[in-house]
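Bug: token stream looks shifted between consecutive jobs. Job 1:
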Amino acid sequence: MSVAFRRESDEEHKEPRFELPLPSGPNLVTERGRVLIDERIAALEAELPGADELAREDIARQLRYWKTRRATAILAPVPPADEIAFGSRVRFRLNGKEQEIGIVGDDEADPAARLIAFSAPLARAMMGAGKGERVAFNGREDAIEIVEIGRV
């Protein structure tokens, strides 16, 4: 029989499974972010015993990601009250519309809850600004007006 018609195992024909990509840069987290990582690990570990072989592989892959994120987590210092930084909650005006966001770590970001990663362009544009300042964004020099600064 020709080698072209032989099939050693199904493993040879599976799509390769790559590790989950880690965001580049430091793994800054808020206190809440650190808790969320621990909760995610606990939930995955609870799923593991009852999972079939394929699900076990996926869970193990996710656990490697989250355990790496826990090991590399850097608790960010409390942000200053008068300057936008990691961990700040910012109320601002963009294109005449007032909005509010919290600046958090990559894994904690949740745009639906108005939490954006510190690496997002909007967050990077506002970092270091103070209340009342205007900030350049999206090609406009005074696109953003900082209305209020607090903590996440």
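Job 2, same session, no restart:
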Amino acid sequence: MSVAFRRESDEEHLEPVFELPIPPGPNLVTGRGLALIAAKVDALEAQVAAAADAEAAKPLRRELRYWHTRRATAIETAPRGDGVVGFGSRVTLVLAGKERTVTLVGDDEAEPAAGLLAFSAPLARAMMGAEAGETLPFNGREDAIEIVAVG
């Protein structure tokens, strides 16, 4: 019989399941971010304990490993507070003619629609070290970002 018609098991044809990717660089978090990580770990541990069987718990355990790693590597960092854009800063800026306010937070805490921007995001990296009144290059334009206020 041809090898094409032989089927040993369904398991050998499944795609491998890799660990969830950890963002590169330091795991800076705000106090709020650290609390969110702890809450996520607690919720996932409860879901794993309540899982019906080992197969149902597999994806939960995978996600739990990610959050355990993020909690273990978290570096709680306070905002600078000196008027210079840095981690934890609340920045009011004008970009593409629109004024908006963002707070620079950790990767896992980021929620751009709510004004929480990851410190590793391109826009955040472009603003790092700037002060109110400065105009900064971004996306190929020399005066794309105007920093209005830093808190």
